Amino acid sequence: MTQSQELTIDRDPGKAIDGGRARTGQRAARSSLRSQVARLERELSAIVAGGFPYIPAPHPAGETTVGPRLLSLGELERSRDELAERVQHFRRLALQRAEHERAAHELLSQMQLEPARHRFVRLSVNDLGQGGCGVWEVRPRLGLIGMLAGWWHVKLSSGCPLAKGSRSERDPARWSPPRVAVGLEVCPRVPGGLLEGALGCAALSPVAVLRGEHLADLVKLEFRFPLRGAGGLPVEQLLRSTAVEVRTRDRDDQQAQRNSNRHHEEVGLRHRLQAPAGAGRVFGRARAARSLLGAVTGSSSTTISSVSS
Amino acid sequence: MSSQEAFEPALGWCSREVEEELPELRIMLAEAHIARAAAVTAASPTEVKARLREMSNRFHGPRAVAIRREPVPAAYRVFFRHIGLDPDVVRTPIEAVALERMLRGGFLSGGLLRDVLLLALVDTGVPVWALDTALLDGPIGVRESREGELFGRSQTAPALPAGRLVIADAAAPVAILFGRLAPQHEASAATRQLTLFAVQVAGVPELFVEEALWTSQMALEHS
C-alpha cells in the first residue's frame, strides 16, 4: 500500500463521519424549524379562528403553488420567516381589535352612566365583539317629551332583520303586531293611541309610534300641562285662589248661561237646557243640573226667568 | 369477533429519504370489494344520501370557522407547511369540504364513492382516497418523483418534475400526495375492487385513520 493510498483510506472514513455529522446536524436543524413552523401555524390559526369575522383569514397574494416536496434547510427557514411575519401582522390586528373593543365597552359604560351627555350616540354590538345586528343607542324616553324634559336612556335594538322579511309580509293571516321595547303600547281606541304599560292592546315599533298624529298629541300635551303648571301658585295659597276662581267661574257661567238662553230665545229653543259651546261635556251637564235645581227650588236665576217668561 | 375488531389496515411503504425527513408520515391501506351491481361511481342509495343530509345539518358556519383549531385538521395544516404547501392557498381536504358546504348550503351527493369518502372525511377529519386495484402494480407507498417520470402508466400522461412527493406503486406515481389522482387510476364504472388509502401525519391518532378507512370500506361493501 502506497502512502497516498493510506492517506486516502485514512481520510475517507473521516469524510464519511463528517458528512454523516453534517447530515445529522442539518436534519436536526430542519426538525427544529418544523417545530417552529408548527408552533407558528397553531398560533396563526388560533388568532384567525378567535378573531373571526373581525380579523380576516390570510390570503397570500401572488403565491405560486409548487407542490408537495421535502424542503431543504433554506426553504424551511424562508417558510418559517414568512410565517413569523404573517403571525406578527395578525398579532397586531388582534391587538388593534382588542383595543377597539375595549374602547367600545368603555363608551357603552359612559353611555349608560350619563346618557344625556351621549345623545343619539349609536354603538353596534359588533364593535363590542358580540355577534348579531343589535345597536346600543341613547334615545329620549317618550319621544319628544323625553327630548324636551331631558329624559334619556340607553336602548338595545331588537337585532337582525328576518331573512324573509317581516312576518306580516310573509303570512298576513297570522299577523300579530310587534311590541315596543319600552313598555308603551298603542291602542287605536285611545286618542293619540298611546298607553303606558301592557294593556293588551296592539303595539307598534318606535318609528310607528312617533308618527305625525301622535307627535301632534305629544306637543299638545307638552304645552298644556308642564308649561302652565310651572307658573302655578304655592300650595298654601292654592285653596284661596281656587275659591276665587270658582266664584269667578260661577259668574262666568251665569253670564254664559244668560247668553245661551238669549240665543235660544232667538232660535226658539227655550225649552231645552244646553251647555255653552266650548265647555266640556261633564261640566256642561253639571251646570245644566244646577240650573234645573235652581228652577225647581225657585231660586232667582236669569236662565229660569227667561225660560218662564 | 365483530367486523370492526377484525379490521386492520395495511401499512404502505415509505422511501428512505421520506422516512428520514418525515418520520411520522404513514400510508395506511384497505381493500374494498364492490358488492352492488351498479357502478361505484353511480348514484348513492337513499341511506347514504340521508346521511349526507344529516351531516349537512350538523355542520354549520361556526364549526367551519373553528375547524382549523381542531386537532386533526390542525395537524394536517402543519403538515402542509412542512411539505411546502400553504394551507391558506392549497386548502386541506377538510377545509375544502367545509368551504364547499358553506358555499353550496349542504354536502351534495356526487355518486357513491365520492359520497362515502366525503362522509369519512367529515366524520373523522382524515382524507381517504380510492384507486382502482386492478390497475395497480403491487403495493403503494410514498416517495419522491424522479426526473422525467410520467404521472400514471399511460404513455400520454404528463411528466412530473423531480422531487414531488407522490403515492406510487411499483411502476409509476399514481397520485400526488394530498393532490389529484392519475386519471387512469381513478375508479370507473368498471371498477369492482378499490384500494383505499389514508395519510397519517404527526398529531393524527391512528384510531382516526382506521376509523376513516373502516367507514369507507363498510359503506362501499354494504351499499
Keywords:
heterodimer, A: 309 residues, mainly alpha, three-stranded antiparallel beta sheet, two-stranded antiparallel ribbon, 5 strands, rod-shaped, disordered N terminus, disordered C terminus, B: 223 residues, alpha+beta, Phenylalanyl-tRNA Synthetase, Chain B, domain 3, four-stranded antiparallel beta sheet, four-stranded mixed beta sheet, 37% helix
Structure notes:
- The complex is a heterodimer of chains A (309) and B (223).
- Chain A is mainly α.
- Chain A contains ten helices and five strands; from the N terminus they run ααββαβαββαααααα.
- In chain A, the strands form two sheets. In chain A, strands 1-2-3 form a three-stranded antiparallel sheet. In chain A, strands 4-5 form a two-stranded antiparallel sheet.
- The longest helix of chain A has 49 residues.
- The N terminus and C terminus of chain A are likely disordered.
- By secondary structure, chain B is α+β, with helices and mostly antiparallel strands.
- In chain B, helix 3 runs parallel beside helix 7.
- Chain B has one domain: Phenylalanyl-tRNA Synthetase, Chain B, domain 3 (3-Layer(bba) Sandwich), CATH 3.50.40.
- At the A-B interface, helix 1 and helix 2 of A face helix 2 and helix 5 of B.
